[in-house]
Amino acid sequence: MKIVVCLKRVPDTTAKIKPAADGRTVDPQGVEFIISPYDEIALEKAVQLKEAGTATQVTVLCLGPANATKELRKAMAIGADDAVLLTEDRDFRDPAATAEVLAAALTELAPDVVFCGWKAIDNDSATVAGMIAARLDFAYASFVVGIEGVEGQNALRVRREVEGTEEQVLVPAPCVLTAQRGLAEPRFASLKGIMKAKRKPLETKAPADAENASDLVALQPPPPRAAGRILGEGAAGVPELVRVLRDDLGVL
Amino acid sequence: MSQNVLVFLETDGDSLRKPALEALGAGRALADGLGTQLHAVIAAPNASAVAGSARPLPADVLHVVEDAALSTSLSGPACRAVRTAATAAAAGYLIFPATVRGRDLLAVTAGALHAGAAADATAIEVIDGTVQITRPVFAGKAVQIVAARRVPFCIGTRPNAFAAPTDGEPGSVVSHELPSAGDAPAATVEEVRAPEVRAVDLTEAEIVVSGGRGFKGPENFHLVEELAAALGGVVGASRAVVDAGWRPHDEQVGQTGKTVSPKLYVACAISGAIQHLAGMSSSKVIVAINKDAEAPIFKVADYGIVGDVFEVLPALSAAIREARAG
Ligand SMILES: Cc1cc2nc3c(=O)[nH]c(=O)nc-3n(C[C@H](O)[C@H](O)[C@H](O)COP(=O)(O)OP(=O)(O)OC[C@H]3O[C@@H](n4cnc5c(N)ncnc54)[C@H](O)[C@@H]3O)c2cc1C
Ligand SMILES: Nc1ncnc2c1ncn2[C@@H]1O[C@H](COP(=O)(O)O)[C@@H](O)[C@H]1O
After folding, report:
1. Of B50, B142, B181, B307, which residue is least crowded by CB atoms under 10 Å?
2. Confidence class for position B1, pLDDT limits 50, 70, 90
3. Residue-wise pLDDT tens for chain A (252 aa)?
């Protein structure tokens, strides 16, 4: 069973996000990049499945700038066998074009299973994985928190969590699965892994042609919040808070 | 190509879910802005009954797809239903409530239609005939505005961001058969374990009361539950609390938990780390209760009480219950 994990390079969770002067992109000043956290969870699970003998090969795939090789090397240090970077430098790739480009690359890679994060934490879209599945006509299961191989079948048995309901779902290959927190705890790369990753194959190539279905108009700071008001100390603040809730906010 | 608008109306038992009604409100405004028709689709095992009773429902045409296969939370059958309605409606814009299921359905429908997509919109506008969508990105640390370049185009509406319609009846009702699945192998549900009472999902809740590490242990979290109950809200938690095992994973608010956008968010004994703020800073009103006047949570709070939650929360819950009763 061959797994491809789709990894996106995104600003670190702690990064201060400030729109740049162009009003379209993030000011890169002081921003560190990481593998999007849910993708990292997906990667960890893929590597575990390989260690358990369920998967035979784990490839990581990224559409991103040339310096995303750093994140791909890290993924290989964690245990991926090889990597493909579809290199481009654009300030805006919309979900439709991203899915089209990744789907084209996946058609070439011909995996049994595609792992994605349920969402990438930069544009908070949660659409690319489902779009890929539909474009490729692959089976699809989202919010996966558990995976096991099925004896004698080219299929996986997964647990997914949807609004408090837990489901056990049989997913035949080829399929797309999205990782939710709880699926696996990402490990740190070992020194040995980092050394080995340097010699693992990393292919870079241009992405297939695809046109955005939307234009980026602007990236702006969030609407400013009015300065807050301290209503009091300790229980002495309670009557005023209740008044605010009742009279100003109308929630009581 | 037509620019009619189609809204997916997610159901909950015999009624429509609130985020679906908000999506309908957004759809009505968009169709009016474009000068086109508003269509809506109900796809459920009991779709006819819901279509007959759920009001207000101000769609020009209501499409009804009733089939037992639509009971699943997997998006395959619902996607076929929506595509059937979209064809019948000559829909250019498809709107989905950005609930857990709605987001998934948007993704697979957009993929199947090779359509554009903008998930989790907080505003939809028509500017010079172009549809512009405003959506929070980077967990609320920035706002992105995109414009649809072509149709079909799928839009998700964030819960609590759009007004639900207050009146209106469907102009006409059309029933459709659910098309059968193609030959491609699909996922199948083998077993479902549903909770006895399904709580309102945090991401859709109007009021969220969250507790942090300052509660010192799970045994004190009843204070948060009581305040949530008094306000008619849902309980959330910081990651510190979830990691410590005091509360379940699905209550975590923040960058690696849920993004909430309620009308009221009450943060109790939560410091306000950037990853926590990421999940709740787009709440309409934020109230913070923390004993440390310098806690970063006060920087985003609209109202604050500097104090000990063990003193403030019982008093606050009691005062709210009293205000409600009287
Ligand atoms: C990659 C990454 C992702 C993360 N994702 C998330 C996430 O999704 N969500 C999240 O919440 N965190 C997340 N975190 C963790 C985050 O950085 C903080 O550690 C966490 O939010 C702290 O939780 P807390 O506010 O409950 O605890 P603390 O930071 O310990 O704060 C406790 C607060 O309670 C106050 N307090 C103590 N006792 C009392 C009392 N008796 N009465 C009143 N106030 C009191 C204190 O003054 C303090 O402000 C993430 C971290 C990383 C590195
Ligand atoms: N540029 C990209 N390169 C690789 N994978 C991506 C990219 N964009 C999105 N994905 C995958 O799709 C998932 C969902 O992304 P999104 O729909 O943008 O929230 C991510 O968690 C990744 O697994």
Report:
1. B181
2. low
3. 999 999 999 999 888 899 999 999 999 999 999 999 999 999 999 999 999 999 999 999 999 999 999 999 999 999 999 999 999 989 899 999 999 999 999 999 999 999 999 999 999 999 999 999 999 999 999 999 999 999 889 999 999 988 888 999 999 999 999 999 899 999 999 999 999 999 999 999 999 999 999 999 999 999 888 889 999 999 999 999 999 999 999 988
pLDDT (0 to 100) of residue A61: 98
Cβ-Cβ contacts under 8 Å, B249 against chain A: 181-182
Domain count along chain B: 2
Q: Which residue owns the Cα nearest ligand 1 atom 40? A: B308
Which ligand does the CA of B298 lie closest to?
1
Dihedral (CA of B100, B212, B278, B245) sign: negative
Is the CB of A157 less than 8 angstroms away from the CB of B190? yes
State ipTM: 0.93
Tens digit of each residue's pLDDT (9 = 90 or more) over B55-99: 999 999 999 999 999 999 899 999 999 999 999 999 999 999 999
CATH 3.40.50.620 given to domain A2-221: yes
CA distance B278 to B314: 28
Q: Is B197 inside a domain boundary?
A: no
Strand runs labelled E in A150-246: 155-162, 165-172, 175-179, 202-205, 214-220, 229-233
Neighbours of A218 (CB within 10 A): 16
Output the furthest CA–CA distance in chain B (Å, rounded).
Answer: 62
* Distance from the B174 Cα atom to the nearest Cα atom in chain A, whole angstroms: 27
Phi, psi angles (nearest 5°) of residue A23: 70, 15
User: Minimal Cα–Cα distance from A201 to chain B, Å?
Assistant: 31
Domain range for B116 is 4-176
Q: Is residue B188 part of a domain?
A: no
Please list the helix, strand and coil fractions of chain A in percent, rounded to the nearest 5, in that order.
Answer: 30, 30, 40
Q: Within 10 Å of residue B72's Cβ, how many Cβ atoms?
A: 17
The separation between CA A18 and the C-alpha centre of its own chain, rounded to angstroms, equals: 21
Residue to test with chain B: of A128, A138, A251, most B Cβ within 10 A: A251
- Whether B166 and B92 map to the same domain: the answer is yes
In angstroms, rounded to a whole number, what is the distance separating the alpha carbons of residues A191 and A78? 10
What number does the ligand 2 atom closest to the CA of A120 have?
19
The domain locations on chain A are 2-221
